[in-house]
Design goal:
Layout lengths: L1 E2 L3 E8 L2 E8 L6 H15 L15 H13 L3 H7 L5 H13 L2 H17 L8 H17 L6 H11 L5 H10 L7 H40 L11 H7 L41 H15 L6
Antiparallel strand pairs: 1-2, 2-3
């Protein structure tokens, strides 16, 4: 047997196979958990009947002595002398229970506190469902240790009535199609958990879809806002629209208001369709205008 400050490691043999158990040490605040763990260890060793003997039967002396030895290992040294005069494991267990649980009046006070804590429980929007369900189970376990059993029906109703609004759809479904008096508490938790996971997956997919749409829209906006490096217009189409259209054409000017020298090798005239100049600079414009004027004069009828 190996001991530590807060627990004792108890080794025994069952069927020739050694088994080790960490036996918690009782203190002023952990009686409920301590009692649950000690009972499970006693059940493994087959000696719990020494603490709660069946009516009309005698307790085996060897089992009684084993239970007493394990109880001594599970309590602080300052309590050993207080229970040293007891000769049965049941007497020791009852003395510890009265000391830590209290008489009926104290027990009722503890139950009232637990009931108040149970009624005030409410799951927050960002709380974990597993953690919240664990709080409900913990209160039910403490009440059970005090001799009061909370039914699954009560636990299920508390769970369904205190979860956030995001669970309303599955809550309504359970209340309509499931017998709340027959469904186990853990089954109700499982259904809410499955709904929560499905909802999270759907929200994640919608977020990915929205991000994709936003990315595409942002790309189109950048393309529309593109400015020509040469003229500063928002698109090259605007440049082609304004370039070379006579009086509607606007020349580029520098900050001083003067025309800047630009490479016109790629500029095509809208008059002669040749490269190297704009329409208003075309030398063939005047020649064509003069030819048209002469043609109009020749076509005028002569008076008799």
């Amino acid at each position: 047997m190996v001991g530590s400050k807060d627990k004792e490691v108890i080794t025994s043999k069952e069927g020739g196979t050694p088994m080790s158990f960490q036996c918690p040490v009782l203190n002023s605040t952990n009686y409920t958990i301590w009692a649950i763990k000690i009972r499970s260890i006693f059940n493994v060793h087959g000696i719990w009947e020494a603490v709660e003997p069946k009516e009309g039967t005698e307790v085996d002396e060897k089992k009684n002595n084993t239970a007493i030895a394990l109880l001594y290992q599970s309590i602080p040294e300052n309590m050993v002398l207080q229970i040293a005069n007891f000769t049965s494991a049941k007497e020791i267990w009852d003395a510890l229970k009265v000391r830590h649980v209290g008489v009926d009046r104290v027990k009722e006070a503890h139950l009232e506190i637990l009931e108040s804590d149970f009624e005030s429980l409410k799951m927050g929007v960002d709380d974990s469902l597993d953690v919240y369900a664990g709080k409900i189970s913990e209160i039910a376990s403490q009440a059970s240790n005090l001799g009061h059993t909370m039914s699954d029906k009560k636990l299920v109703r508390k769970l369904l009535s205190s979860v956030p609004e995001k669970f309303i759809q599955i809550v309504v479904t359970i209340e309509q199609f499931v017998d709340l008096g027959a469904v186990p508490f853990q089954e109700a938790v499982r259904r809410l958990k499955a709904f929560e996971e499905r909802t999270k997956k759907k929200i994640k997919e919608e977020d990915m879809h929205n991000k994709l749409l936003f990315s595409k829209g942002d790309g189109k906006k950048k393309a529309n806002d593109h400015k020509c490096e040469r003229c500063g217009h928002k698109s090259s189409k605007q440049e082609n629209k304004e370039r070379g259209q006579g009086k509607n054409w606007k020349s580029w000017k520098n900050k001083g208001g003067k025309h800047s020298h630009q490479n016109k090798d790629h500029i095509r005239c809208f008059n002669c369709n040749e490269l190297g100049h704009f329409k208003h600079e075309c030398t063939k414009w005047e020649k064509r205008a003069e030819a048209n004027l002469i043609r109009e004069e020749d076509e005028e009828p002569t008076l008799p």
